[in-house]
Write a structure and sequence with these properties.
An 8-stranded parallel barrel has the order 1-2-3-4-5-6-7-8. α4 links the parallel β4 and β5. It is globular and about 40 Å long. The two termini are 15 Å apart. With 207 residues, it is an alpha/beta fold. 32% of the residues lie in helices and 22% in strands. The longest helix has 12 residues. The chain has one domain: TIM Barrel.
Amino acid sequence: MNHSTAPIIKICGLTSIEQSLACVELGADWIGLNCWSGSSRYVNPDTARKIVAALPETVTTVGVFVNESTAILTKIMHESSLDLAQLHGDEQPQVCKKLTPNWFKAFRVSPEFKLEQIQEYGQETFLLDAYSKTHYGGSGKTIDWELAGKASVVGKLILAGGLTPENVAEAVKKVQPWAVDVCSGVESEPGIKDLWRVEKFINNLRK
């Protein structure tokens, strides 16, 4: 359910079929599953496959990976029938370009971040997340919206990093992203979504 006037909505860090379906019912366009075993929202390949199989085909499913080997990433993507791989670690352009599954790079925006880094990967779609020393995503920290706004002209920007029902409308107005990605901002605990907050997030964005 893509709205031409509003960004695509990705709800990330889902861990069950029931919650994934509920988020889609509320209006999520993309569902993100964390395939990195170091995450508190980790789902194993078998669970990922079951969640993907239960979702309508209109929903885009994204597997989140952190510094995974090309062989294992490709195997998980294939076996789970995930649509896109989100590379959320320190993957280098030459490694990413060898991947056969469809992928996009997530950049953690530290003070040293340069927009030129995005173009090195040669992908139209990219994600910007807040930088954290301790987290590869899902930290709840807010990104620099001014910098993110400059990046929105580079390609299809997926805006992540500290988005909540309370700030998403303002973030979209300032940054003009192609898509938004929310994880901890709509959770009651890691991997468990507060569906009331999910609904509020989507409604506040689409008003």
